[in-house]
What does this fold into?
Amino acid sequence: VRFIGNRSSGRMGWALAFAAWTRGAEVTVILGFSDVPPPPQVTTVNAPTASLMHKAVLEHLPDCDIFISAAAVADYRPAETSSVKRKRSSDPWSVTLVPNPDILSEAAARTKPGQILVGFAAETEDPVSRGIEKRKSKGVNLILANTVGGDYDAIGSDSAEAWIIGPRDEVTPLERANKITIADRLLDACLTVSHP
It folds into this structure.
């Protein structure tokens, strides 16, 4: 009944799946919670928890040419869960949180030659610098950095202000645009990634 989550709507994932499908790609969406269903033309794997998403990503990763990690997976989960609703009381309630698997880092560690990996950096401040740091620390080819909170909040919106961070930390700013346009620009960037 009670859970830890976030406000992410799944709209960016939908836009990416649709944009890739319109380009002729075979698309598999590993779906957590979403306000919008994936396009009907794509293969969908339901993964409502971080653990199930982790398992599904590792299962499907070897078969993909481009892996885009757009899901806003929780960094932590409760150490203990309950199958029944906890009743309200006047007593304090402490919940111990433990880290979820770092799906993007683990995917990056398992890539095969020629695969392209893309991560997202949703940041409340300094998205470009933090996006550059995340690209390096996760070991991915590209990062799409965007702002959350404030006037340019990407979460739950049909549009966003974003920056594509490239393999050499080059930054391509994207003016506030709808998420389909951002998805197309990100896919264009994927197609320009060269491998040694």
About this structure: The mean pLDDT is 88.
